[in-house]
Amino acid sequence: MSDYEGNESKFMRKAKENPFVPVGMAGFFAIVAWRLMKMKNRGDTKMSVHLIHMRVGAQGFVVGAITIGVLYSMYNDYIVKPREEQKALKDK
Known about the structure:
Elements: H1 3-17, H2 20-38, H3 47-91
Helix pairs in contact: 2-3
């Protein structure tokens, strides 16, 4: 197994453990690409302001995706699993 295959399987394992990380990464790259394409139509806006807006938008998307992932994980850990355990104890 080469290092490339090991890294790919590690990424896939992490993506299955926390599916919102790839969503956050994809959103980050999409926002950056969109803002880079809009750069030619920015008018008289300074480059630094444009780049700051791009960074804030991309970071906001990533933070939102991570927050949703944490809430989803907490829901599974504290609501779904206890219900399943109670149901399993009831069925015994």
